[in-house]
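User: Second chain of the day. Same drill as before.
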Amino acid sequence: MNTNKKLISKNINNLNFIILFHLILIVGQFSFGQNINNRSLDITDSDKLIRLPETFIIETEIDPKTYILGPADKVGLSIMSTSHLTYILTVTPSGQLWIPEIGIVAVSGLTIPDAEIKVQKYIQDEKYNTAEVSLILLNIRKFKVQISGAVIAPGFINVSAVDRLTDIIHRAGGLHKLADEEMVVIKRQSSNIKCSLKSYQFNGDLANNPILKEGDVVQVPFLDSFSTEVEMSTSHKKSLVLVTGFVMKPGGHQFLPGYTIQDYIALSGGITDQGSQKKVALYRNGKEIPVDLMLYPKPGDQIDIPANMKFRYLGNISILQTLTAVMSLYLTFVAATN
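Assistant: Same format as last time:
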């Protein structure tokens, strides 16, 4: 009788231990999940703050004596005469200021002080002969500039009247890895402005990072040593390099000459925790070819990242879940045999 009581007591103790073990694991997982959720909330809130819209960003104060007015600039106009009149005006696409009840004055291409003198003379001649006029810049204009060549996303890019060469390159996705940074050219009217980005980066020479103007065309050449790959990229514009399998953002990428398998995987966000970097496969014309991560894919190639061994055998089960299952089986076995 005493032996049975001891056995029952022992089994109850084992059962209590199993229950306590499971409770500890559940509470631990719940707390871990809460911490992750809190962190994600913090990141979301931070992103909202970062993404607050701004009217414009300037590197320093704008000097009215050097800033050239152009279409879409917004100015404030004050007229002091028998009465005080104030206007917020925008330079028209044809480069003029339309002043209500007074008339039209061409100001595009002028500095702010020069435009102020011209506007004052016009107002005095047309309506208020003793008027005192003040003209100030309220907001800077934006316009499109074309960029071509060795950048990630060539095309027409929105820039402002104070943006520099490096700003448009950044908005075009950055330099291609085969870009010739020493020979960037800005075509402006009938002249070519040659710029060395390396000189700007190393010496801070602003002459090699000029402010952009309407009508500029920026050309970033490729290195001569990769001319064959560049010709291939232009003749295969519609052929993508596909990245499939266990990457963050599977899909097709524009063929980029000089980019390796590893580069295309990086463009897809990298390999997930379930993917295997050692088993990456490259398919060309339906056939698998030997893979080296530094190999240069061709247009139409497919890069496939398969699942790693852990995911193939255990799926999405975490190590903690696996340990829980093993311990549960073990403790159940111990309880049953005792």
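The first helix runs from residue 2 to 50.

User: Great, on to the next one.
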